[in-house]
């Protein structure tokens, strides 16, 4: 029984770690995508403003 408990605990810990890592990676990807999109939008706005000025 002790072995079974230890195995279950180890499996649970591994699953939790994997879930946390996946969540962190997803959050980082979302942040990077948002930053890139914002930069693209800002550049486009700047280009439009420059075109209007010229």
TrEMBL record:
The chain crosses the membrane at residues 6-38. Keywords: Membrane, Transmembrane, Transmembrane helix. It comes from the Eukaryota. This is Uncharacterized protein. It comes from Dreissena polymorpha.
């Amino acid at each position: 029984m002790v072995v079974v408990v230890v195995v279950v605990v180890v499996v649970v810990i591994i699953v939790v770690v994997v879930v946390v890592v996946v969540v962190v990676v997803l959050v980082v990807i979302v942040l990077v995508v948002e930053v890139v999109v914002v930069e693209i939008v800002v550049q486009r706005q700047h280009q439009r403003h420059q075109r209007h000025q010229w």
